[in-house]
C-alpha cells in the first residue's frame, strides 16, 4: 500500500474469501510522520484512529443504514441552504466582480439520489453545485467506504471525509493537515457569496 506524505487512509484487500482493511494510525508531530499499518478482518474493526498533535479523530464503523441516514440528511439540508442562498445572493454582481463572463444561468444546485443496490439498501447521492465562472463543487456519497467525497474548484482540491461519531463531524487529513467538512465549506462558500456562512452537516 502506498501512502501520501502526511495522509493516513485505509485500503482494502481481498485475500481468499476474506476482506481485509488496512488500519492506519497516524501521528503528526511537527514535520515527523509515523505510520503504523496493521491488517485485521473488517468485522473486527470498529474504528480507524487518526491522531494529530492536538486532537484525535476516530472514523466510526457506521452501518449502511446509519451512514445513508446521516449523509442523505446532511446533503438534503445543504441543498436547501444553497437554494436559499441562490435566491438572496446577487449572483450577477459576483460574476461582474470576477470579470470572467459567467451568467446567472451558470449557477445551479442539484442533488440526485440513485438506487445502487436494492438488496443492501445502498444509495449513491451526488450534489452538484455549479458556481458559474468559479467552477463546480461535487459532493457525493461513497457507501462502500462510508465516506463523503468532495471535489472543490478551489485550491483545496479533492478530499475524502470520514465520520467521527463522538464529535459528530466529517473529517480528513491531507498533506499533514486536518480538515473538517463543515469548516471547509463554510470558509470557501463565505468567500464565494461575500458573506459569513456557517454550514453544519
TrEMBL record:
GO terms for molecular function: 2 iron, 2 sulfur cluster binding; ferric iron binding; ferrous iron binding; ferroxidase activity; iron chaperone activity. The keyword NADP does not apply. It holds the Pfam family Frataxin_Cyay. Its EC number is 1.16.3.1. The keyword Oxidoreductase applies. Gene3D superfamilies: Frataxin/CyaY (3.30.920.10). It comes from Malassezia psittaci. This is Ferroxidase.
Amino acid at each position: 500500500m502506498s501512502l501520501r506524505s502526511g495522509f493516513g487512509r485505509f485500503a482494502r484487500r481481498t485475500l481468499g474469501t476474506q476482506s481485509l482493511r488496512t488500519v492506519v494510525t497516524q501521528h503528526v508531530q511537527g514535520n515527523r510522520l509515523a505510520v503504523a499499518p496493521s491488517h485485521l478482518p473488517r468485522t473486527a474493526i470498529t474504528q480507524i484512529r487518526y491522531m494529530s498533535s492536538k486532537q484525535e479523530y476516530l472514523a466510526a464503523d457506521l452501518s449502511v443504514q446509519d451512514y445513508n441516514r446521516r449523509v442523505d440528511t446532511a446533503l438534503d439540508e445543504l441543498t436547501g441552504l444553497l437554494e436559499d442562498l441562490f435566491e438572496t445572493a446577487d449572483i450577477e454582481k459576483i460574476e461582474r466582480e470576477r470579470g470572467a463572463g459567467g451568467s446567472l444561468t451558470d449557477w445551479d444546485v442539484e442533488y440526485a439520489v440513485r438506487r445502487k443496490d436494492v438488496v443492501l439498501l445502498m444509495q449513491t447521492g451526488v450534489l452538484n453545485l455549479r458556481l458559474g465562472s468559479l467552477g463546480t463543487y461535487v459532493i457525493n456519497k461513497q457507501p462502500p467506504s462510508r465516506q463523503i467525497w468532495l471535489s472543490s474548484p478551489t485550491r483545496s482540491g479533492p478530499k475524502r471525509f470520514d465520520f467521527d461519531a463522538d464529535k459528530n463531524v466529517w473529517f480528513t487529513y491531507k498533506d499533514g493537515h486536518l480538515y473538517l467538512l463543515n469548516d471547509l465549506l463554510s470558509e470557501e462558500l463565505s468567500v464565494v457569496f461575500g458573506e459569513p456562512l456557517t454550514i453544519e452537516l
